[in-house]
Amino acid sequence: MRYRVAVTTIRDLARLADVSVATVSRVFNNPEVVSQETREHVLRVAARVGYQPNESARTLATKKSYMIGLIWDTDHRRPGWRHPFLQEILIGLKTALSERGYHLLLLATSEREDSDKDVYLRAVKRHNLDGVVFIDNGTRDPALDVLAASGVPCVSLDRPVSGPRTTYVTSDNVGGARSAVARLHARGCRTIATITGPVRTRPGAERLDGYRAELAALDLPYRPELVVEGDFYLAGGYAGMRRLLDLPHRPDGVFVAGDEMAVGALRAITEAGLAVPEDVALIGFDDIELAALVPPGITTIAQDKAGFGTAAATALVEMIDSAEDEAPPPTVLPTTVVLRGTA
Amino acid sequence: MRYRVAVTTIRDLARLADVSVATVSRVFNNPEVVSQETREHVLRVAARVGYQPNESARTLATKKSYMIGLIWDTDHRRPGWRHPFLQEILIGLKTALSERGYHLLLLATSEREDSDKDVYLRAVKRHNLDGVVFIDNGTRDPALDVLAASGVPCVSLDRPVSGPRTTYVTSDNVGGARSAVARLHARGCRTIATITGPVRTRPGAERLDGYRAELAALDLPYRPELVVEGDFYLAGGYAGMRRLLDLPHRPDGVFVAGDEMAVGALRAITEAGLAVPEDVALIGFDDIELAALVPPGITTIAQDKAGFGTAAATALVEMIDSAEDEAPPPTVLPTTVVLRGTA
DNA sequence: CTGAAAGCGCTTACAG
DNA sequence: CTGAAAGCGCTTACAG
C-alpha cells in the first residue's frame, strides 16, 4: 500500500454485497446479463464504499488497457524542434480520446540509440497499449515503420505511414497553398514567390506542390529563383525573404509556408524599408497564435487544429474496435484563409 | 492477442532458459542475487527472443506503476485557457521523469461534474499511479485538495497546496517583479505603473507584491491609480495600457506581469502615437517565444521553463522513494532579466 | 441469472 | 543461489 487511501477490491465488494466476484464483475462489464435487483444492489454498495476497479488487473485479464501511446520525440536528433501547435493538438486528442474512454500515455523514449528499431513496439507491448498516435517531427524514424508494420493500430499526424492498421491525418496542404496563391493573385500580385518548408517534410513538399499548381492554373510562369527553401522557423523566413528582396525583379507577393517564417519574412521586408502589403503582400500558413498578434496581423491559411485530435481519435478507436486488419483512409482536413493585414 | 506480435512471457523465457520463473524475475529485479553464469545466460536468451516484462502484471504484483499522472484541466470552466509555456514544461517533465524510469499519463477528466470531489484520487487508484503533477489553471479545484490530503505524492506547478506528501514549484515572482521595477527605475523611469495578472492567481498576486516591495525600496510612492488588473491575455494588456495612458500624469515605465499582456500594452502605446521605450518603457514577464518575435523585442523577466519540469520530477521521485510522510520544501526558481527593445 | 474455478503475467516470502 | 507456491485483482468460459 503506497498511500493511505483504503482500496476496496472486487472481493471486498462481493463480500459486502453478498454476491460472487463474478457477479460484481458482470455488473460493471455486462450489466444486462444480471438481474436488475442484484445489479442495483451491487451498484449501491459499490458507490457507498467507493469501489474502483484496478485497471492493471483488468488489463492483465483482458489485454486491453484503454491507453493510447503518444509518440512525440522531443529531443532525439533535433533538440530545438517545436511543434507549431502542439498544445491545440494535445487538447483535441485528449478530449476526443477521453470521450471514448481512453487515456493518453506520453511515451518517454528520449535516451535511445539510433539503432534501436523497436523502441516503440516494445513500449506498446510492455504497457499493453491499445494504439498509438505519432506526432511527426520531420525526421525519418525507422522505429516508426517497425511499429506500423506490426499491426498495432496507429495514426500518424502529418506523415504518411503504411501498415495493416495504420492511417494518418493531415491538412489539405496543396489546397491551402493554392488558395494562398490565388488570394495573392486576386489582390493584384503578378510576381509571386514562395518560401517553402523543408521539402523533405511532407507539409513542406505539398505546400510547394500547391504553389506550383496554382501558378499553372493562373497561367503564371514558374520561376525557380522565386522559390527559396526555408526551415519553418523565423530565421529561415527572414533569410529567405532577404534573398527574394535581392532579386533584380523582386516579388510583389510571397506565399510563406509557415506563420513563424512569415513573421521573419515580415521583419525582413520592414527592415528593407518596404511596406506590407503595398510593396510586398504576404500570406502564411498554420494560423498560429502569433499570426494574429504581430502587427498588422498575418494573413494566413488556417489549419483545423482541434480537427487533428478529433480525427486521430476517431480513426484510432475505429481500428481498435475492428476485428479486421484494415485502416480507415487518411483524413485530409480542409484549410481556410484568414484575412488579416498582410494580404 | 490484439496484435500479431509474438509476446513472450516470463514463463516462456524460463522454459527456454531452463530456469524457474522466479529466477528470471530476479535477473531483472534483483540481478545481484543470482549467479553471474545464470544471469548472463538468461539475459542472452531474453535478448534473443525479445522478452519484455508485462507492466500491467508487474504493477498488479508490486503496486508500483512507474506512471505519473498529469492533471492539466483543459476545458473545465475555462475553455479558452492556455498555458504560456506548456510545451516547455511538458518537455522538461517528460525528459526528467523518463531519466528516472517514469512515464506520464495525461489524465482525461474533462466531463466531470463540479461536485465530483475525488476524480483525481479515483484515477490515481484505478491506474496505480505513483504520483501526480498538477498544472495550475488558475481556478480553485477542490478535487485537488482532496488528492493532496490523501497522501498521494503530488507536486503542483505555480500553486501552493498542502498535504502530507505534497509540494510545489514556482518562479520567484516577487524577486522577478522587483528586478523589473528596478530596471525601469535604473533607466530613468520615475512614474512606474503595473498591469497585473488576476490577483486571485498566485503569480498575479506575487508579482504585484514584488512591484510594491521594490517601489518601497526605491522610495517611490505607491499610487493605486498606477495599478490596473489584467488577465494575462493580450486583450487585458491592451485595455490596461489604455487606461494608464488616459491618466492625467501618465507613467513613463510599466511593469506588465505577463508577456502576452505586454504585447497588448505595446500595441496600445504605439497606437497612441507614443514611442517605446522613449515615452513609455515596458517590461514583461515569462519570456515566451513571442516576446523575442514582436519588434522591437520585449524586455522581460524570464522564467526557467525547463526548470519546472526538472524540479517537479525530482521532488516527485524523492517523495515516491521515501517511506516517510514528508515533502521536500517548495522549489522557487530564480528568474533572469532579458534585455530587449522595450526597456 | 449466478457461482466456482482457472487464468492473465508478474513478484516475493519461504524453504532448501 | 534457486525453485515451488501463493498472491496481486480482475475476467470469462463452464456448469448449473
From TrEMBL, chains A, B:
<dbReference type="InterPro" id="IPR000843">
    <property type="entry name" value="HTH_LacI"/>
</dbReference>
<dbReference type="Pfam" id="PF00356">
    <property type="entry name" value="LacI"/>
</dbReference>
<dbReference type="Pfam" id="PF13377">
    <property type="entry name" value="Peripla_BP_3"/>
</dbReference>
<keyword id="KW-0238">DNA-binding</keyword>
<dbReference type="InterPro" id="IPR010982">
    <property type="entry name" value="Lambda_DNA-bd_dom_sf"/>
</dbReference>
<keyword id="KW-0804">Transcription</keyword>
<dbReference type="GO" id="GO:0003700">
    <property type="term" value="F:DNA-binding transcription factor activity"/>
</dbReference>
<protein>
    <submittedName>
        <fullName>Transcriptional regulator, LacI family</fullName>
    </submittedName>
</protein>
<keyword id="KW-0805">Transcription regulation</keyword>
<feature type="domain" description="HTH lacI-type">
    <location>
        <begin position="8"/>
        <end position="62"/>
    </location>
</feature>
<dbReference type="InterPro" id="IPR046335">
    <property type="entry name" value="LacI/GalR-like_sensor"/>
</dbReference>
<dbReference type="InterPro" id="IPR028082">
    <property type="entry name" value="Peripla_BP_I"/>
</dbReference>
<dbReference type="GO" id="GO:0000976">
    <property type="term" value="F:transcription cis-regulatory region binding"/>
</dbReference>
